[in-house]
Amino acid sequence: MKQSITRYAGFLLILVSVVGGIVYNLRAKTTTTVETSTSTALIEPLKETSSALSGYGEIYVDIKGEVIAPGVYSMRPGERIFDLIKIAGGVTASADTSHLNLAMMVEDEMVVIIPKIENEFNTEPENPINLIVVEIKGEVRYPGVYEMPSGSRIEDLIKKAGELTAFADTSTVSKASVLTDGEAITIARLPVTSFITEKKILVEIRGEVNQPGTYEIKESGLVRDLINLAGGITKTASLEGINLLKPLVAGEMIIVKAFSAAMLDEHLDETVTSGEGLININTADLETLMTLSGIGIVLGQRIIDYRAEYGDFLAIEDVMFVSGIKESVFQKIADAITVG
């Protein structure tokens, strides 16, 4: 009996060993098959696209829209949309990322679109603004016909035409005026005398003037201009034989002679109203008025013109109504004039 049990125990031990070996071999074979199958599934696609991939484990993402360099980029698993935008050179000035989750991880074959800002501040509206056609001529750098936005002003048109030239005269142009379709604007040229200095000549004056000497005067100057420049004539001067409107010539000499005793007595008799020798500003001629201190040809003629237009002076102070005769001039002549 004891021998039978020992025999069966040995047999069972052998059977268990055999079954265990078979199970172990089956498990090893299954594992190898799965690993091989999995490796083949990962590696084969990489071999087929080895020219497009830069390394094992890369993914490819397409980014479009408002980035500096849209396109397809290879990335590492775990990188995010934020990283993709950096690789694409960053967003443009008109990009709208307000609706994007920049922290989202990218996935293989993902397409990311960065939209454009569309709001009331967009500088590129869908519908173009109304345009008008205007022409500008004259003193601008680029005269011609221009398309301008409706509501533009002349100042805007001048800028578009390259600004004004150095000879432009805008005294009659309102730069704030609104342009109208088909309008033509002309910018005039300044007169020649506005930017060309008139030539001057040297002339000499002697005799009965307050400041005889040599003077530089405009080429278009007259004898009366020279006398006035020399401070006017003296009280004893005679303008007889002198043409005050004669044009001067370079190097010319003008001589103002003095009255003779007989002429002076006769002249004073005609122009004074009392034995005190006062000059009547209501009756004195130009030569007599010019004998007054500070009264030259110009002011003397203004006195004559004033009384011709408004009548006689009622008081000596009224002479200050004449243009150019101020209080300082009046004080010089107050003791020498009368209206009687």
Care to describe what's here?
This protein has 340 residues and is an alpha/beta fold. The protein contains nine helices and 13 strands. It has three domains: 59-114, no CATH class; 131-194, Ubiquitin-like (UB roll), CATH 3.10.20.600; 200-338, DNA polymerase, domain 1 (Orthogonal Bundle), CATH 1.10.150. A hairpin with a 5-residue loop joins β4 (131-138) and β5. Strands 5-4-7-6 form a four-stranded mixed beta sheet, with helices on one face. A four-stranded mixed beta sheet has the order 9-8-11-10, covered by helices on one side. It is 32% helix and 19% strand.
Query: What order do the strands of the largest sheet run in, or round the barrel if closed?
Result: 5-4-7-6
- Report the average pLDDT across residues: 77
CATH topology-level name of the largest domain: DNA polymerase, domain 1
For the termini, the CA-CA separation is 186 Å
Low-confidence stretches: 28-55, 120-127, 271-275
CATH architectural group of the largest domain? Orthogonal Bundle
Q: Over all CA atoms, what is the radius of gyration? A: 55 Å
**So, the CATH homologous superfamily of the largest domain?**
Photosystem II 12 kDa extrinsic protein
How would you describe the shape? rod-shaped
How much of the polypeptide forms β-strand, as a percent range?
A: 15-25%
Classify the helix fraction into a percent range: 25-40%
User: How many β-strand runs?
Assistant: 13
* Total domain count: 3
Largest sheet: 4 strands, mixed
Q: Number of helical runs?
A: 9
Return the CATH class of the largest domain: Mainly Alpha
What is the ordering of alpha helices and beta strands?
HEEHEEEHEEHEEHEEHEHHHE
Look at the helices and sheets and give the structural class: alpha/beta
